[in-house]
DNA sequence: ATTAATTTTTAGATTAATCTAAAAATTTAA
DNA sequence: TTAAATTTTTAGATTAATCTAAAAATTAAT
């Protein structure tokens, strides 16, 4: 392995990993350009380079998918990102809406010794502050099955285990209405017209949630 | 301040700070090229850029010195570097010879909130694992007066407060012969021919040190 | 099945950071 | 105080990452 990825290459690999639903599903040039806030022409150039390095599979006009080594790299970056987020929240008292941007920088620090010691220092956490699973040193992830709150029906119960994205405005709003990971939640009513919901939460009682919110909250698939 | 320094610019600013003995003393193009492991031609280009950004004073063929804003930036980077070193040693159990390289990366993470929270988390340390002073949030350093062990004479006593450089081989050697910060040391003999010394250390007793070593060890100037 | 719209790629430039080789200025030595 | 040595700067290229504009391929719509 005479390779060390540049910061840009790492960001491409991570984006391909996160956009691709399954490891095989191809990611389009435009989707990457959107995600990386760059232009399709730039992406075209870069994917040629990554393909040449055998990190992705690429056929012209057909999009890209990560190779085995590409996936391995992606998981390493994601592991670092999420471990640093745990550090920032658990030890530096950041709020969950403040850590993503800093972790975007810290995920590029190169030292496997550092990552593994950080992992131990944190107590080998399995999820990050947003409920996302943390890959272990070998890149393995243990992801419990979950569904969106918006997919639940009246009288269903479950436990909040994650949020779908890390938009600070969403996270701050959830803070404001006292929704956090680990809470038991029960759907008391679903409004057919706009998919808004009334839910019952411990202590808080019944609150109203729009579909904008319920489609961002992950609930453990019980049993 | 519409400025954010690139990683490269930060490294130049830091190098100028560390090479320049006093804030006024001019740093030569070649000295910078050596320190940054690059070529003089490259340095010439970059110092023009930094001068244009008013981070340094520069006159052709006369070398460079940091401006007030340049110094401020340098101190911010050095603060981050040393705080991260403390974290790595005190919380992740790295040895003092393993942290410099990782800190070279971490010092470029941009978030003043992060640095200040890290500072608090670490208990607002005033020195790093090598005895170097840590600038506070306002860039102030409190540096106790010190001298080199090699400058001491027979029967002088003092306390080891730092090492002059962070070469892992030096640090590992000091570990091996059980020399560390905080030890009381007494010069028992100085050999005029090669400036080698015999010193007395608590528990260890009398050991022999070459000038290569004694010129790297800092002793507090007592009172 | 053509045509139109969209997506993707190529062509040609630009910027930051770097290099080598050569010219210019400064410093050191004879 | 000239000449030699050293240092520093300039000139001209290169590489990575980016852009705009235009061409080519694919996909969607008549
Ligand atoms: Mn994140
Ligand atoms: Mn996260
Ligand atoms: Mn260091
Ligand atoms: Mn240090």
Number of helices, where a helix is a run of at least 4 consecutive DSSP H or I residues of chain A:
8
Bound molecules: manganese (II) ion
- What is the C-alpha radius of gyration of chain A, as a whole number of Å? 19 Å
| Main interface by residue count | A-B, 18 and 18 residues
Overview of this structure, please?
The structure is a homodimer of 223-residue chains. With 223 residues, chain A is α+β, with helices and mostly antiparallel strands. Chain A has 3 domains: 7-66, Orthogonal Bundle (Arc Repressor Mutant, subunit A); 77-142, Winged helix-like DNA-binding domain superfamily/Winged helix DNA-binding domain (Arc Repressor Mutant, subunit A, Orthogonal Bundle), CATH 1.10.10; 146-220, SH3 type barrels, CATH 2.30.30. Helix content of chain A is 39%, strand content 17%. Chain A has 8 helices and 8 strands, in the order αααββαααββαβββαβ. In chain A, the strands form 2 sheets. Chain A has a 6-stranded antiparallel sheet with strand order 3-8-4-5-6-7. In chain A, strand 6 (197-201) and strand 7 (205-209) form a beta hairpin. The longest helix of chain A has 23 residues, at 68-90. Chain A is globular. The first copy, chain A, starts with 6 loop residues before the first helix and ends with a strand. The complex binds manganese (II) ion (MN) (4 copies). One manganese (II) ion binds at residues 81, 85, 100, 103, 166 of chain A. Chain A binds a DNA duplex (30 and 30 nucleotides) through helix 3.
